[in-house]
Design goal:
- It is built from 22 helices and 10 strands.
- By secondary structure, the protein is of the alpha/beta class.
- The chain has a 6-stranded parallel β-sheet with strand order 3-2-1-4-5-6, sandwiched between helices. Strands 7-10-8-9 form a 4-stranded antiparallel β-sheet.
- The chain is extended.
């Protein structure tokens, strides 16, 4: 193999195996192309501000003397930023190293010498596909003002306005709706063009030789025809002959028909795609959430769990295949999406980051098979996400555990344990009922011991829970040891331990607030 070809192949394998290179490329791809990426909206805002700034500067220069700083900012700073963006988009459009490797391995398989120029030709072809796309052409025109010595090229600043299509989702949704009806709109446009052409020729024939006519050229005839069919009617050109007036009546009726048909097409397009637009907006809102709990199946149990989580200020996303249950969840002011919890496509549509966003997934269908499928699908996507599942039939417990569920909740087992423990103890039953009642002000709360709390409070006695009239049920150790019920006052606190407390909502809030202020002395 020749030195250049060897260098190309070696470089391709190095880049293809470099985790840092892939991470950087993925970052820029998400920043510019991935609508579900949380930081993309900030990038879009910056680009929109630059576009509007360049147009405002251009408008100001029409009647006012150009300021040196503004001209430099518009011609160089903004243009260079757009140039960098253009090159980055071209870079992330495809994987050049993958093309080279595929070409090399293909030639090796056929036992022939690797031709680096064929690989470069394949890369150039893919890049040309990007450069010839409408959005890339607009990006290229937006860079043209960089060559400000050519005064005419400054007019290309106006092409920067079209870049707004990239950074505003609402405009993209509008274009997608119109694209859905492109055949109908093109047919209507062709009809309007034929009417303009025919009426323009007719009005020219009727009016061009009349001594008092205002329509003396074919251009003026087409201009009048276009203005009339659009029902604008400036009145600057008026037919004088009877034949011209007949043509005017014909084109006015045609204009009303064109407007009526175009309005009906656009309205029907929005009606058909409204559900998709609402769903896309909902998915964007879900992507913007920092953390949330994902509930699969909005059953009666899920409704109670969701209500409890919302009272604690938690974000909730519901995924359910049943349309009526999704509507019910939406009426409860939850973010709900129609989808099968057991299908990968449902989570791909949501575009969520399990590691960063999802606190836990709750599989709460009244069907063990559905919960197993959901768990298997989720585990195939993320090995560490917390999974909790409702168990309907005891013999399916092992299946849920094998599917990767962390915690299995079997309602009958819990009821049996409580009934056995408190049999003949009516007061205890009343206490349990008070804790689970939605009207009760008594709450159970988990508090994570952080580094600051550890530096101020060394053991359980320092917490002084009696002062706040709250009960410390126990501590879940950070090292994964057994749960410590009713810990001794001398029990040491460690960073990452979880305190389980019971008390009034107001007192718990006061206790949590005081934990993060200077140590109390009483």
């Amino acid at each position: 193999m020749k030195p250049f070809a060897r260098f190309m192949v070696k470089s391709a394998y190095v880049l293809n195996g470099s985790a840092s290179y892939k991470a950087v490329k993925k970052f820029f791809y998400n920043l510019m192309e991935n609508n579900s990426y949380r930081y993309k909206k900030y990038f879009d805002i910056v680009m929109v501000v630059l576009i509007l700034s360049s147009v405002i500067i251009l408008i100001r220069e029409v009647k006012y003397e150009s300021h040196d700083f503004l001209q430099f900012f518009n011609d160089y700073v903004i243009s260079i930023i757009f140039l960098i963006e253009y090159l980055l988009r071209m870079w992330v459009y495809n994987d050049n190293s993958k093309i080279i490797i595929d070409r090399y391995e293909h030639d090796e398989f056929l036992q022939r010498e690797f031709n680096p120029f064929k690989a470069l030709k394949a890369i150039a072809y893919v890049k040309f596909q990007y450069m010839s796309s409408p959005s890339a052409i607009i990006d290229l025109f937006a860079i043209m003002p960089f060559f400000h010595e050519l005064r005419l090229l400054r007019l290309f600043i106006l092409f920067r306005v079209f870049k707004l299509f990239r950074y505003t989702n609402s405009i993209r949704h509008l274009l997608s709706v119109l694209t859905h009806k492109k055949h109908e709109l093109l047919t209507l446009l062709m009809f309007a063009a034929i009417v303009v052409f025919v009426s323009g020729v007719l009005i020219y024939v009727m009016e061009a030789n009349h001594p008092n006519s205002q329509i003396n050229t074919l251009f003026e005839a087409f201009y009048w025809s276009l203005v009339t069919i659009s029902t604008v009617g400036f009145g600057d050109l008026v037919p004088k002959t009877e034949g011209g007036q007949v043509v005017a009546m014909f084109i006015i009726i045609s204009g009303i028909a064109v407007l009526s048909f175009s309005t009906s097409i656009i309205v029907s397009a929005f009606t058909e795609r409204m559900d998709d637009i609402v769903e896309n907006k909902l998915i964007e809102n879900i992507s913007a959430l920092k953390t949330f709990y994902l509930i699969c199946g909005y059953t009666k149990t899920a409704q109670q769990v969701a209500a409890k989580l919302r009272r604690h200020g938690k974000n909730i996303v519901v995924l359910d295949r049943d349309v009526e249950r999704v509507k019910l969840a939406t009426s409860h002011r939850l973010k709900a999406v129609i989808g099968d919890p057991g299908a990968l496509a449902s989570y791909a549509k949501l575009g969520i980051d399990f590691k960063e966003q999802v606190r836990a997934v709750l599989c709460l269908e009244y069907d063990d098979v559905s919960n197993v499928y959901a768990a298997l699908t989720l585990r195939s996507m993320d090995k560490e996400v917390m999974l909790l599942s409702l168990l309907i039939h005891q013999h399916n417990r092992k299946k849920l555990l094998l599917a990767g569920v962390n915690e299995v909740i079997y309602a009958q087992e819990l009821v049996g344990m409580v009934a056995k423990e408190f049999s003949g103890m009516p007061v205890a039953f009343e206490a349990i009922h008070a804790l689970r009642s939605e009207q009760s002000d008594v709450l159970t709360e988990e508090i994570v011991i952080d580094e600051y709390i550890c530096s101020q409070y060394h053991d359980v006695g320092d917490l002084d829970t009696e002062y706040y009239r709250i009960i410390l049920m126990g501590i879940s150790p950070v090292n994964g040891g057994a749960f410590l019920f009713n810990p001794d006052a001398h029990e040491r606190l460690h960073n990452g331990d979880i305190l389980l407390i019971i008390g009034s909502n107001v007192l718990i809030k006061e206790f949590k607030r005081d934990l993060h202020v200077k140590k109390r002395y009483r």
